[in-house]
Amino acid sequence: MSGVLWPWAAAAFRRAAGAAALLALASFILGPLLTLLVWAFAGTWLFPNLLPEFSLRWWAFVLGNADVGKAIRMSLLSAPTATLISAVICIPAAYAFARLEFPAKRALLLSFLSANAFPKIGLYVSIATLLYRLDLMDTFTGVVLIQLVNTLLFMIWIPTGTFRGINRNLEEAARDAGAGPLRTFFQITLPIALPGIMVAGLFAFIAAFDEAQGTLIVGTPNHMTMPVLMYNLVLSYPQPVGAVFSILLSLPSLVLLLFAQRYLRAGYLAAGYSL
Amino acid sequence: MRGAGLRQGALGLALVLPPLLVLGFLVALPAVTAVLATLTPDGGGGPTLANYARVLAARTLRADIVFTIGITLVSVAVVFALSYPLALYLRFSRGRAARILGVLFVVPLFVPVVIASFAMITFLVNHGLVSTLLYRAGVRAFPRLVYNGTGIMLTQVWVNIPFAVLILGAGLQAIDDALIDGARDVGAGPLRTFLSIILPLNAVPTMIALTLLFIGVFGSFTIPYLVGGNAPAMLGVTMTNYLTQYLRRTEAVTIAVLAFLIASVVGAVYVASVSRRERGAA
């Protein structure tokens, strides 16, 4: 009897264990975010009530705060600047890494990993001491430079992979038909590479926009971006303030993600994060 | 022909030069000036290790170093232990649960670390959601989950699981199904197949994941700053405090260079592993 029941019981057990694991992971990942979401609409939330007393008054407080407006402006100026600068200097370089032969090519490509190979905060502290000497602390330039630390790698490596994946025959056919190298690049290569470049741009923007620890050191007190202001809000205001601001801070990345969704298949995600 | 090759070489270098200069300014130059600055004594004179001796003489700093390495190792181990099974599951399962998990686990990627830390605090803090649920369930005594090492570790796990799963998963995706079926056909069980086929074939992505995790946790600031306790602190917090609170730049940079030294072997293994994967792909 047990010999007949056993496989069925084992399958049921496996299924239950799988469901339990799924549930545990889901609550671990979504639990903190849901708590945050509820806090953003809470007036007061007293222990041990399961739900707060809802209110929108903290939204008025956050949106009416002058520092918040300033930080939003600083973020919306610096992150696109850093993304654009890295796109302009990195995309031609990525093309060169993919298509041209030149000395020390491999070593130079690998050197872009160095930003990842150092403990980030140590790097920021070292950059800060350099910026002190150059009088770039608490300047817009300093903030953009710090953000570039995180954008270069994405903008070099993802487009390099994309350009490598493009069939050379297409470019050669255009050349045979009489197009010059620049025309071939802009009319053939670049349009085909666009999805990869978009994904690189998205990652670069998110990395620049979310950069907090370096900007805290370099941009305080007059060039604070949204994530830097978030440190202050978390440490010195009631919880709903941080929660409301968290939602504001997530909006740009979320909008971009929805926008770029069709480019973001799993393969591209992996490409961005296996650097 | 030779002229064309030279021209291509020159063009390639010219195109690569601008981002390389920016990189040099942002990574190589600060790192080198930092090392040189820490070796120069305040009063002038030849190179000396006096700064290091002074910084390391402080017992609190030595405690911070031990704490940082400990938290880093535990966090990496927990992330890895959770991520590898998840990556395997996503690679070899086709059901609805796998699809849901496949979407769910990437969520933390798109949450800025500052928000993740704050969300973790509201979730885990005394009188937060977890303690409310435990209280309602009748559990009145449980260890503190936040403003200490446990909080740092849990938040690091939350933030880093997607990275690890994506890197490991990309490696697993590259393993040919035929190899795994072949192993099954000659009678290897799941464990045997994992140990003798999957694990070795996925060794390079595994090294990349482990080294990146180590460097990421070791060099973190936001999570220990917001979710950690006062003492011992992780080195990221310590060096930032020296720089911005105590205004002691030399000490801050000395601690930064110490952090570089501790993580240097791991950093080298990371670059070597990516280099090996590149060679395989190119």
Helix content of chain B: over 70%
Q: Number of DSSP helices of chain A?
A: 13
Shape of chain A: globular
Low-confidence spans of chain A: none
Output the helix-strand order of chain A.
HEEHHHHHHHHHHHH
Descriptive keywords:
heterodimer; A: 275 residues; mainly alpha; two-stranded antiparallel sheet; 13 helices; 2 strands; globular; B: 282 residues; flat
Please describe the topology of this protein:
The complex is a heterodimer of chains A (275) and B (282).
Chain A: H1 2-40, E1 42-44, E2 53-54, H2 57-63, H3 66-99, H4 105-111, H5 114-117, H6 120-133, H7 140-165, H8 168-176, H9 181-210, H10 213-219, H11 226-236, H12 239-259, H13 266-273
Antiparallel strand pairs in A: 1-2
Helix pairs in contact in A: 1-12, 2-12, 3-7, 3-9, 3-11, 6-10, 7-9, 7-10, 8-9, 11-12
Chain B: H1 2-39, H2 50-57, H3 59-92, H4 96-104, H5 113-124, H6 129-136, H7 149-173, H8 177-185, H9 190-201, H10 203-218, H11 222-227, H12 235-244, H13 249-281
Helix pairs in contact in B: 1-13, 3-7, 3-10, 5-7, 7-10, 8-9, 10-13, 12-13
Question: How is this structure best summarized?
Answer:
Chain A is an all-alpha fold and 275 residues long. Chain A has helices at 2-40, 57-63, 66-99, 105-111, 114-117, 120-133, 140-165, 168-176, 181-210, 213-219, 226-236, 239-259, 266-273; strands spanning 42-44, 53-54.
Q: Would you kindly provide a written description of the structure presented here, covering whatever features stand out?
A:
The complex is a heterodimer of chains A (275) and B (282). Chain A starts with a helix and ends with a helix. Chain A is 79% helix and 2% strand. Chain A has a two-stranded antiparallel ribbon. Chain A has 13 helices and two strands, in the order H-E-E-H-H-H-H-H-H-H-H-H-H-H-H. The model of chain A has no long low-confidence stretch (mean pLDDT 87). In chain B, helix 3 packs antiparallel against helix 10, helix 5 packs across helix 7 and helix 8 packs antiparallel against helix 9. The mean pLDDT of chain B is 90. The chains are: A mainly alpha (275), B mainly alpha (282).
